[in-house]
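Lay summary. Proteins are chains of building blocks that fold into shapes, and those shapes determine what they do. In this project we predict the shape from the chain. Here is one chain we studied, written as its sequence of building blocks.
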Amino acid sequence: LNIPDPPPLLYVKGRTGLLNAQSLAIVGSRHATPQGIGNAEQFAQTLSDAGLCIISGMAHGIDAAAHRGALRGPGGSIAVLGTGLDKVYPAANRELAHQLAKQGALLSEFALGTPPIGSNFPRRNRLISGMSIGTLVVEASLQSGSLITARLASEQGHDVFAIPGSIHSPQSRGCHRLIKQGAKLVETAQDILEEL
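And here is the predicted shape, written in a compact code that computers can read:
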């Protein structure tokens, strides 16, 4: 409700009580490294264990890992979709979507039947950041949509966190740019909890 262009309505399937939970967004590359996947799962589980609901976009890579980690803890997880709730995209995440519908929640501003349209995914990013008190970027290239989510979070007045990586890794360059621009460098989930 507090973002500049809130949706007129939201479609939700799952634990609607999670919509009122204190939440943190975890986003990152679809082409994540094994280390990035491990970091996303570990950070998400630790933050979920601390009571935070983890919000992400159910994409391949970091998003899916964040949902999986968060569902292992009591905080739960919400997936914000760029399609209607009846369309699972990517199809490879069908089992994850079913798990989120039972243990977490699926959320979309798009009507049932809405297929995956490219322009809808940057739109959904404003909801991922808008529903969260902060956004953690785990891995991101310089062209990553995760940087859009981080920019929106900053514009919405929310904290932005980034995990640093190797200077030789293309998947770390987006995080390094965010840190140069003022995002908080984090090495552990505890760094985020202390900041919040």
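What the prediction tells us: The longest strand covers residues 23-27.
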